[in-house]
Amino acid sequence: MLATVMVRALERTLPLVPRPVAPAVSQIAGTVAYLTSGKARAAVRANQLVVAPGRRPRVRRTFVNQSRNYLDTFRLFRESPERVREWVETEHWDRFLDAHALGRGVVIASAHFGPVNVCGQILITRGYSTTMPVEDEMSEFARAINRARSAFGATFIATSSARGIYRVLREGGVLGVIADRAVTGTGERVEFFGREVLLPSAHIALALRSRSVILPAFAYRRRGGKVSLLFEPPLDLVDTGDHDADVRRGMREFARVMEGHISAHPEEWAVFEPMFRSDSVGQSPPSPKPSPLRWLRLLRSEGPKRRG
């Protein structure tokens, strides 16, 4: 009950945060989360050591970025479709138009990367009905996020409803999926940043069966407060008759696309669980909890430099 009241309060107050002060609020909230979330902090650091080897992990920045993403997601409660169209830019929009014109259904495949919840709204506000598979909502906060994501009419469907998802694609609809974590524990193991990792495979399998187009797209922040949804070329899916092999081939291709974006901007990859086995990361020591006396300094830095 208390959690529900607190989340409802966030839903009412966060959209009221003036846009000019959003970066400062995100700095504070993200730094507090960074300081108080030891397991998540260690997981982000371990992940970044794999996806950006040789570079200093930017762990605190990931927490700050995700705080900004949440703040902007809640802002959707108060935005108009016209304002979203001004806020969200697109890059290579023609790739989406060409894919949609085929009439076979389009899967917009992305990752927990950048302001993806906000950028995804551009499809809906430009008149393209979009369906998003979601897992069972395990917390009141998750339910609040999904309420914000559906503010402009996005349709949700359970990830377990394979027939329902297949129907969306067969009818030429648009499906938006986040496909960098196998949350349900099902998928295929493929090479990802040189490691064998379990990744979701349903979107590839369904696209092959429905002959739909899989279009990778990734969200970025741009200058002047703008955000942008960048569309990559469609995946080259091939139906050879060996469905399992075709799915693995498609997953490897999508994994390569994700690697390019994540390795270039690891601080934007908002995955707070370990993605890679600890023995493959070099048995790095756990990330120590920073001293509270350093909180103010952390607001202006990328966090303490650590060995490991």
Describe what you observe in this structure.
- The model is unreliable at about 280-290, about 290-295 and about 300-308 (pLDDT under 50).
- Helix 2 packs across helix 4, helix 4 packs across helix 9 and helix 10 packs across helix 11 (about 200-210).
- A 7-stranded mixed β-sheet has the order 1-9-8-2-5-3-4, sandwiched between helices. A two-stranded antiparallel ribbon has the order 6-7.
- About 40% of the residues are buried.
- With about 300 residues, the chain is of the alpha/beta class.
- Strand 3 (about 130-135), helix 9 (about 140-150) and strand 4 form a beta-alpha-beta unit.
- The chain is built from 13 helices and 9 strands.
Question: How would you concisely characterize the structure shown here?
Answer:
The protein is 44% helix and 15% strand.
Number of helices: 13
- CATH class label: Alpha Beta
Biggest β-sheet: count, sense, barrel? 7 strands, mixed
Note the overall shape. Answer: globular
Q: In which range does the helix fraction lie?
A: 40-55%
CATH topology: Glycerol-3-phosphate (1)-acyltransferase
Instruction: Give, in spatial order, the strands making up the sheet with the most strands.
Output: 1-9-8-2-5-3-4
Distance between the termini: 42 Å
Quote the average pLDDT.
89
Low-confidence stretches: 280-289, 291-296, 302-308
Radius of gyration: 19 Å
List keywords for this structure.
7-stranded mixed sheet; 13 helices; 9 strands; disordered C terminus; 44% helix; Glycerol-3-phosphate (1)-acyltransferase; alpha/beta; 308 residues; two-stranded antiparallel ribbon
